[in-house]
């Protein structure tokens, strides 16, 4: 692979479906027994940490998501739930009362930083503030301490965090603006800062926009993992068509690349993993990824066409469930640079 080139080119990769689901909901009565949605994957030494947000049945308010983590010695599992889950909980304050979600972890020196979204829903019009905070820990499992000056970013565009990375001395944050195009889906925006706590500057225009009418990603994106490799920025993301029903979003995984993190080019062969390739899958949402040449591991929320028997849980007047899934991509010409 040459420097400053895309990761994906026609004919140079193969999709290896992983046995799914990789992680299912918790035991009845546990904090995560109704739905699990993917957060980021973090590796240190020989351990993989898969962060996720989840809620319990029955759902009484507006999600009530909290954050947990599972660990494994392999990128594909088996996964073990952390005994101290949830590791980040709701708070009775003015910005994270209704859920905490979308965890992303980076390490600076000996400190771990978790970026996350907190939300409060205002009655009676149901308008939602979804802002960004950070928490710190001395260990990937925690305990996690929320930053006293949270939230670090209040934005109507940068909302569902996909990922944060540092390039040279600058931090880049990527997030979708949920509900911009349909429920839970929007365009992809970017914010930058010179320090983790900010101040963060939000770019006015999106860095990734929806596809044309009738395209696989015409309804926008859930979340995206952005990483730097071989001199380029790379983005793996979930894109959806219009359905009008959240649990039937027909969401596939796509790929884009950029020389500067701002100007992105969609891979012409998108989607690289169509949802139709996965038996009984209606969506691969909240996509995150990890590169271990020659493999790229995609971690995502798994939604079903038909929920597994005995796994249907009510969400108000809807009956559905979410688990966590993994897809593996093998690139023939991917090497460490």
How would you briefly describe this protein structure?
With 337 residues, the protein is mainly beta.
Structural summary, described in words:
The protein has 337 residues and is mostly beta strands. Helices cover 0% and strands 47% of the residues. The radius of gyration is 18 Å and the shape is globular. The mean pLDDT is 90.
Multimer state = single chain
Binned strand content: over 45%
Average pLDDT score: 90
Q: Would you tell me which CATH topology applies?
A: Tachylectin-2, Chain A
Question: How does the SSE layout of this entry go?
Answer:
Layout: E1 13-17, E2 35-44, E3 47-55, E4 66-72, E5 80-81, E6 99-108, E7 111-122, E8 127-137, E9 145-146, E10 160-167, E11 170-176, E12 188-193, E13 201-202, E14 221-229, E15 232-240, E16 251-258, E17 265-266, E18 281-292, E19 295-304, E20 313-315, E21 318-320, E22 322-331
Antiparallel strand pairs: 1-22, 2-3, 3-4, 4-5, 6-7, 7-8, 8-9, 10-11, 11-12, 12-13, 14-15, 15-16, 16-17, 18-19, 19-22, 20-21
């Amino acid at each position: 692979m040459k420097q400053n080139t895309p990761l994906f080119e026609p004919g140079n990769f193969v999709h290896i479906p992983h046995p799914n689901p990789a992680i299912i909901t918790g035991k009845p009565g546990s904090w995560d027994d109704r739905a699990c949605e993917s957060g980021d994957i973090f590796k240190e030494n020989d351990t993989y940490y898969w962060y996720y947000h989840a809620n319990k049945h029955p759902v009484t308010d507006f999600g009530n998501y909290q954050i947990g983590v599972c660990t494994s010695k392999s990128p594909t599992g088996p996964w073990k739930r952390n005994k101290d889950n949830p590791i980040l909980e709701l708070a009775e304050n003015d910005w994270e009362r209704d859920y905490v979600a979308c965890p992303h972890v980076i390490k600076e020196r000996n400190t771990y930083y978790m970026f996350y979204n907190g939300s409060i829903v205002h009655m009676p019009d149901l308008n939602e503030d979804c802002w960004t905070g950070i928490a710190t820990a001395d260990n990937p499992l925690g305990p996690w301490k929320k930053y006293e000056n949270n939230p670090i970013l209040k934005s109507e565009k940068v909302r569902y965090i996909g990922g944060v990375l540092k390039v040279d001395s600058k931090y880049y944050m990527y997030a979708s603006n949920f509900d911009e195009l349909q429920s839970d889906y929007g365009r992809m925006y970017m914010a930058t800062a010179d320090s983790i706590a900010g101040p963060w500057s939000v770019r006015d225009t999106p860095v990734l926009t929806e596809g044309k009418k009738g395209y696989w990603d015409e309804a926008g994106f859930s979340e995206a993992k952005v990483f730097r490799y071989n001199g380029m920025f790379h983005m793996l993301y979930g894109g959806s068509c219009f359905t009008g029903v959240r649990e039937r979003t027909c969401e596939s995984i796509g790929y884009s690349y950029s020389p500067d993190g701002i100007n992105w080019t969609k891979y012409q062969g998108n989607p690289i993993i169509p949802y139709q390739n996965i038996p009984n899958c209606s969506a691969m949402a909240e996509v995150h990824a990890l590169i271990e040449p020659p493999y790229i591991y995609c971690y995502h929320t798994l939604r079903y066409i038909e929920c597994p028997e005995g796994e249907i849980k009510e969400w108000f007047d809807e009956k559905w469930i979410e688990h966590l899934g993994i897809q593996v991509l093998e690139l023939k010409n991917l090497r460490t640079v």
